[in-house]
Structure formats: C-alpha cells, structure tokens
C-alpha cells in the first residue's frame, strides 16, 4: 500500500481508520471532561483495590504464605 503512487487508493485505505475516529469526535466533543471524570473515579480502584485483591488471591493458602519471600509477622495467623 505504501509503494503505490495512486493517491485515491491510499485515501481509500485510510478511510476505515479515519471515519470511526471522526465519528467518535463528533459524538463526544468534550471527551477531556469525560476522561477526567472516569479517571477520577477509577484511580482509587486501580491503585488500592486491585493490588489488595491480587495479594489476597496470591497468598490465600497457608502454604503460599509460608513459601513467600517475606514472611508474615508472627502475630498474624497463617
């Protein structure tokens, strides 16, 4: 496609990419504010909740806690 000299053929190849992006830009003219609101709502979830859930899933069995690189404190039951 990059070797062809025909401008019409290159433009036809680019249309399937450009038209959906253009359509989304028309639908969401204020995407920056929407993106800010979604980011504000999801930052705490991705920073605090997902790592805690991953840790609990990884060390849910006593054998996994005993084989961990850093052992749990002595006052926590394992």
TrEMBL record:
One BP annotation, GO: amino acid transport
Organism domain of life: Eukaryota
Chief location category: membrane
Keyword Ubl conjugation: no
Residue ranges of every copy of the Amino acid transporter transmembrane domain listed in the record: 2-75
One Pfam family hit: Aa_trans
Keyword Transmembrane tagged: yes
Transmembrane segments: 12-31, 37-58
InterPro entries linked to this entry: AA_transpt_TM
Keywords: Amino-acid transport, Membrane, Transmembrane, Transmembrane helix, Transport
Compartments (UniProt record): Membrane
A GO CC term attached to the entry: membrane
Protein's UniProt name: Auxin transporter protein 1
Source organism of this protein record: Artemisia annua (Sweet wormwood)
Lineage of the species this protein comes from: Eukaryota, Viridiplantae, Streptophyta, Embryophyta, Tracheophyta
């Amino acid at each position: 496609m990059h070797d062809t000299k025909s401008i019409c053929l290159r433009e036809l190849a680019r249309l399937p990419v450009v038209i959906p992006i253009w359509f989304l830009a028309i639908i969401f003219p204020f995407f920056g504010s929407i993106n800010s609101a979604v980011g504000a709502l999801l930052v705490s979830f991705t920073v605090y909740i997902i790592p805690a859930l991953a840790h609990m899933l990884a060390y849910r069995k006593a054998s996994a806690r005993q084989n961990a690189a850093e052992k749990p404190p002595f006052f926590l039951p394992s």
